[in-house]
Specification:
mainly alpha
Length: 111
């Protein structure tokens, strides 16, 4: 169980290092925050919940909340980037799947 958490964290770091264009380009924050939110934080939150107990459940909640906040920031980045460039929103399968995933995340957060 702990091995998987380390693997998720390592994957997140390596994937963020591979994101182009590199920082400080505003778009860089979109894939970075999505990776950190969904893979690094939420992925480990699921593993922590499997440990069981009250403390693990609280840590799970904190990690999920932080992951949701990171994902929301990633959405804000891509939304504001498209606005600044005058491009339309949700025009690809990637955009539609991302919106559905993000909305599902928020629905599960309040459920």
């Amino acid at each position: 169980l702990y091995w998987w958490g380390s693997a998720l964290a390592l994957f997140t770091v390596l994937a963020v290092a591979a994101v182009t264009p590199r920082w400080p380009v505003w778009f860089w924050y979109h894939p970075t925050s999505m990776l950190v939110g969904y893979v690094g934080l939420m992925g480990n939150a699921v593993l922590v919940k499997k440990i069981g107990g009250r403390t693990a459940t609280k840590i799970h909640g904190y990690l999920m909340a932080a992951g949701s906040a990171a994902a929301a920031f990633g959405w804000y980045v891509i939304h504001s980037n498209k606005e600044a460039m005058g491009k339309p929103h949700i025009t690809t399968w990637h955009g539609l799947a991302g919106l559905i995933c993000l909305l599902s995340t928020f629905i599960m957060a309040v459920a």
